[in-house]
Design goal:
Layout (H helix, E strand, L loop, with lengths): L8 E4 L2 E4 H13 L3 H9 L14 H8 L2 H9 L15 H13 L9 H15 L10 H19 L1
Antiparallel strand pairs: 1-2
């Protein structure tokens, strides 16, 4: 008998799906840069902030690898950018800053292009720049706020 305190499950289409399994599928999809599988895992109920064996979330994994579309998708599903990672104890935005600093010192971090790290950072900054709305609120609030930030930036450019 499974220990109910350590395993959570849900019944979907007459099938028991364990959150640990579906959460790891989300991590695997991020690792493989498979946006379709990421979407499927989250639609099946994968906890967007599920921690892997190294205590990292899918958002942190996406940031580590410079997976811009993955970061964008995870933020769409309300991934928490403020959770600290299991290795450095840094938030996703802090991880981007660290990776950019390391690259500027001539150490190439996992061969991730600096442009990808910067794009991830900009998405995280936009998600954090929401004034008066919870970044962890509804998807509609986050999208509206991100649209408002991008619109404000466009107006400053012109």
């Amino acid at each position: 008998m499974a220990n109910s305190s350590t395993q959570s499950a849900v019944v979907l289409a007459n099938r028991v799906v364990h959150f640990d399994d579906i959460g790891m599928k989300l991590h695997d999809a991020v690792r493989d840069r498979d946006l379709v599988c990421m979407e499927k895992a989250m639609m099946m109920g994968a906890p967007v902030d599920f921690r892997d064996d190294h205590n990292n979330t899918p958002l942190q994994r996406a940031v580590h690898s410079g997976y811009v579309l993955g970061v964008q998708e995870l933020l769409w599903y309300n991934a928490d950018p403020d959770i600290l990672d299991g290795y450095y104890g840094l938030s996703a935005k802090d991880l981007c800053q660290r990776n950019l600093r390391v690259q500027s010192e001539g150490i190439f971090y996992r061969r991730v292009p600096a442009a990808d790290i910067m794009a991830c950072y900009e998405l995280l900054v936009k998600a954090s720049a929401v004034d008066g709305l919870s970044v962890h609120g509804s998807v509609a609030e986050l999208n509206l706020a991100m649209f408002a930030v991008s619109l404000a930036q466009e107006m400053e450019i012109e």
